[in-house]
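Deliverable D5.2: sample structural annotation.
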Amino acid sequence: VREWVNGMVRQAAEGHPVVVDGRDMGTAVFPQARVKIFLVADSWERAKRRLIQRLERQPTREEIAEETDALVHRDAKDEAQTQRADDAVLIDTTYLTQEEQVERIVALARRAMRTE
């Protein structure tokens, strides 16, 4: 199933620039992509962001700690699928706003488009 889905994603992207998101996009689905970005953030910050989005309020320290434990456990389990491509640009988003993250990614994409 996984190979079929990857093939469908590749087919949908044929002939035009695309932006895709996923654990293995730069390694298994689009290994020849001109721009590959690997986002990371501190587990506590990731947990806090997820809870704010889910709860639509500021979470308590206890809620963040519980979510952090769950994320760390899931990350360890998913480690085999979450490999950074050798040529991916690493962006640590721990202290970046969402707007700053988008600005950095767009700048990388624009730079790659100018050098084709």
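Annotation notes: Helices lie at 2-13, 25-29, 43-55, 61-78, 98-114. The radius of gyration is 16 Å.
The annotation will be released with the project's public dataset once the embargo ends.
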